[in-house]
Specification:
- It comes from Carnobacterium antarcticum.
- InterPro entries: Amidohydrolase, Bact_exopeptidase_dim_dom, Peptidase_M20, Peptidase_M20_dimer.
- Pfam families: M20_dimer, Peptidase_M20.
- This is M20 family metallopeptidase.
- The structure is a single chain.
- By secondary structure, the chain is an alpha+beta fold.
- The protein folds into two domains: about 270 residues, Zn peptidases (Aminopeptidase, 3-Layer(aba) Sandwich), CATH 3.40.630; about 110 residues, 2-Layer Sandwich (Alpha-Beta Plaits).
- It has ten helices and 15 strands.
- The strands form four sheets. A seven-stranded mixed β-sheet has the order 1-2-4-3-5-15-6, with helices on both faces. Strands 10-12-8-13 form a four-stranded antiparallel β-sheet, with helices on one face.
- Helix 2 runs antiparallel to helix 4, helix 4 crosses helix 10 and helix 8 crosses helix 10.
- The longest helix has 21 residues.
- It is elongated.
Length: about 400
């Protein structure tokens, strides 16, 4: 009798744990994942899986089945965060100020486990599986590089996943529709004329219109965008002036804008530019609004969400589907969705007994390693179901 993907990944669970801990102990920041890439390549060579380097530190592994067919891509991000780890783990970060506080070490491990299983069973399926070990998710640059280097050429479907502490270990979510918001960054610069603080009438103050604009920002969105379409603004940086007795010539702010509906995004952009100009005109100064798109929204394809959920039920159980309301986080997985339909799954890590209750990007974040065999098997099952060769 053929072993199931979960039975196969359970057999290699200790290997998965060891590899994840190896990655965890040497985390690297976005676009500097050189040692991480070396570890990934060493494993691929050990397993006899062909690969190529792309981007700066990304790697694409390719597994071809017995005959031509569809192509499915599995994506794992590999970068860490600029956070200092002090959890007292035997395998904690050796790199001061850098930590795998988002679980990308686990994502990489699960995809590697899937690669091993799929490579060993490649005579049982038709088509091709590509595994993206992707750099720089945290800076939203990695997926664009893989796309630019042709990684998505000929891909029919793409699958990825992320661990979350909002649902319990042993549960999952892969529903259709909106999952994560898109995100743009707006750089706003008000420019006036400097002068002495004792004679402000001889200068052109940039601070006051900038501050009034900042205070009005939420109302600008509320009064211009359909209230049924959430748009979240955050002023993450505001800077003005140089010294107490100098009229500020320049005032700048950096604003993140998160959205699901692209029409609402466009309306928001225009409203923000229009109001910024109005405040500048009122004080007879100038303003510049530069908009930098970061990521599109992540929206799961309905047909592929059905396959992912079917695969997930085989791995986790039919009673382990969790709710996961759409979130105002952003993910550069969405760039793959501009090229082919895809689905992004959520795998739970919440386990009070193990203390894995903290959210990603928290310096107390820990991962429940029980998910490694589950996530690896979910990758395998999704790929096989999509390629049409999974046992039903």
């Amino acid at each position: 009798m053929t072993e199931t993907p979960l039975e196969q990944t359970t057999k290699i669970e200790q290997q998965l744990i060891e590899f994840r801990r190896l990655l965890h102990s040497e985390p690297e920041l976005s676009e500097n994942e050189f040692k991480t890439q070396e570890k990934i390549i060493a494993k691929l060579e050990e397993f006899g899986i062909p690969y190529k380097k792309v981007g700066k530190t990304s790697t694409i592994a390719t597994i071809k089945g017995k005959s031509p067919g569809k192509t499915v891509a599995l994506r794992a991000d590999i970068d860490a965060l600029p956070i200092n780890e002090d959890l007292g783990l035997d395998f904690q970060s050796k790199n001061p100020g850098v930590m795998h506080a988002c679980g990308h070490d686990a994502h990489t491990t699960m995809a590697m486990g899937a690669a091993k299983i799929l490579n060993e069973s490649k005579e049982s399926f038709d088509g091709e599986v590509r595994i993206f070990f992707q750099e720089a998710e945290e800076t939203f640059e990695g997926a664009k590089k893989i796309v630019a280097d042709g990684g998505m050429d000929g891909v029919d479907a793409v699958f990825g996943m992320h661990n979350y502490n909002t649902i319990p270990t042993g549960s999952f979510y892969s529903g259709a529709g909106d999952l994560f918001s898109g995100c743009d960054t707006l750089y706003v610069t008000f420019t006036g004329k400097s002068g002495h603080g004792g004679t402000p009438q001889l200068g052109k103050d940039s601070f006051t219109p900038a501050a009034q604009f900042a205070l009005d920002l939420q109302q600008i969105i509320a009064k211009n965008i359909d209230s049924r379409d959430p748009v979240v603004l955050n002023i993450g940086r505001f800077a003005s002036g140089t010294k107490a007795n100098i009229v500020p010539k320049e005032s700048t702010m950096d604003i993140s804008m998160r959205y699901f509906d692209e029409d609402s995004r466009d309306i928001g952009h225009e409203a923000i530019k229009r109001h910024a100009q109005a405040f500048a005109d009122m004080y007879e100064i100038t303003v510049d609004v530069t908009i930098e798109p970061s990521t599109p929204p992540t929206k799961n394809d309905a047909a592929l969400a059905k396959i992912a959920t079917s695969a997930g039920m085989k791995i986790f159980g039919s009673d382990k589907i969790s709710e996961f309301p759409r979130a105002m986080n952003s993910e550069d997985f969405s760039y793959y969705l501009q090229e082919a339909p895809g689905v992004y799954g959520i795998i739970g890590i919440y386990n009070e007994k193990k203390g894995t209750t903290h959210a990603p990007h928290d310096d107390h974040y820990e991962l429940d390693e029980d998910i490694l065999k589950l996530g690896a098997a979910w990758h395998v099952e999704f790929a096989l179901e999509f390629l049409g060769t999974a046992d039903n």
